[in-house]
Amino acid sequence: MNILVPLKPILDPAGMIVNRKAGRVFVNRENYMTNPADKRALEAALRIKDEAGAGVIVAAFGPDRSADSLLEARAMGADRAILIDIPSPDETVSVHALAALCHHLGQVDLVIVGDSALDTGASIGPRLAEALDFAFLGGAVQCSVEGNAARIIRRGDSRGRPDRASARPAPAATAHEADLPAVVAVTREGAQPRYPHGGNIITAYRDANAIESLSPADLGLSDSDLQPVAIERGQSFPPEREFGKQASLDDIASVIGHR
Amino acid sequence: MNYDLPPEYTALRRMMREFCEEEIKPAAKRIDHSGQVPREMLQRLGELGFLGVPFPRQYGGMGAGEIGYCILMEELNRASPSVATIVGAHIGIGVMSLYLDGSKTLQDKYMPDLCSGKKICAFALTEPNAGSDAAAIQMRATLEGDSYFLDGQKMWITNGPIADVINVLALTDPALGARGGATVFAVEREWEGYSTGKPERKMGLHGSPTSLLNFDNVRVPKENIVGQLGLGFVTFMKTLDIGRVSLGAATLGGAQAALEACVRWARTRSQFGRQIAHMQSVQFIVADMAAEIEALRALVYRTAWLVDTGRPFIKEAGMCKLLGSETASRCIDRAVQIHGALGLSRDFPLERAFRDARISEIFEGTNEIQRIVIASELMQEVGVRLRP
Questions:
Q1: Does the distance separating the beta carbons of B68 and A197 come in below 8 Å?
Q2: Are both B243 and B364 inside the same structural domain?
Q3: What is the complex's ipTM, to 2 decimals?
């Protein structure tokens, strides 16, 4: 079984300061890190590999900034790392390229993605499932493969309120299953990613063949596949949110009374 | 000239920093109060390769050389000097003496368990009457049949109470003394006649246990001689030479933590109606700290590079330990001053850092010994040999 995990390097938010007055985001330190949800997706894939055996393939878009994410994934236990030579694609192009990569690789049974990127975008999962005609399971905090099905645990909304008197009740969770092949989107509440063994970091970085490069032509992508559908015209802040009103008990009682 | 750390080391530092921030730093206060580092934490360090950074992969090490090891010590000491000291005594002098001079059989026997954290190592040189004058050791090793019998006492041994394998220097030929008549033996904790004293009560490094070691006719098979018979003093001095580099790296981490605390504090603390960052008295202090730390960093990593490229490094290693320990003490002292009363409060990490830093000017060769090492290397360059 093969599992594909796309990884997105993003600017580390710890190195940025948002200045609303100046209308700008100042980048103090330009550090890149793997998108946290993507890293949890990788951990989910590696756990399936540990338990059931699977080939884990990670992919990222390049040429810049992606090497660290890919090599770190190799050190954590990914079997192959693929750099797709398309610089900073939007989600539409990403979906085209990832779908093409699945076809190029042949037997990909499961794609595990992070459900959202810290910077922009949260639609890779469902769009990729649609493009590949795979089943889609979103919001996973846990993912396993049982027989020919992917099984996920999704955390419910009814997270028990913290109660000092009793132990905090376990959050309600639901299990969902879909036949393979499938796309699973893991949230940032998925399992904590493992630390790689330091020796594996050294080995991965010193291995000249640790990353395989594929060009759009290798994947059979046409120029139209590489056309972004949206064009960025500029950036601005969303309008400032106003404080809500503090309601008295009487207000609440009257609202309930109306029902 | 290229000052870029190769990308594998940058990635290694990123991982180590993350681990130290998430798993060690939050426990640092508890480690200091309880007086011990949980064994599970050491095991976890072993699983990730932290306990064998400079040693080859075949022994379960990380294969990251002296540079990788310096990065580890810097990051560990930035989070918890107690943990750093346990790891430093384990790798830097304990396992290092086995690795430098031990026989292949001995290395195969002990190094995999030591690098993976199943066992912890100690290095035993100091005695009640042999401190800076290390050649004055009195511990005896007498040959009977196929074995040596060790008799004597070692003092102030870092990791003493927790070590499973102890590399110990004893006189095999008292007539020759330490130079020519001393030998290193690898001793296992379970062997009869070996016992450890109560953990010492120290000002700092509460989580790093130190004790005396008693050897009451401990039988050690000949195979457990580390290096050559009679040349143990050389083995130990070689080990200490190299250990000074990573010790400098550790002090670098401590000084760096103090600087970071000051910069954060300068931003949050206000007096006279503004952040104290705007006051020159504070600016001058952090600027001095930053400059000294940067100089230390350059020295430490250049020396690590000398080690990894097989060049002479003894003079520079002495400088790492000397400059490092004094820079760290100075920086932490100033950091306490900037923090005012908070700097001395037991509820804040600087008070602990202040207590933890002082020992660096003493252990593994006092700074006075470091000055002698540096001077004798300097004099040797002009053909003057100083008597030990």
A1: no
A2: yes
A3: 0.89
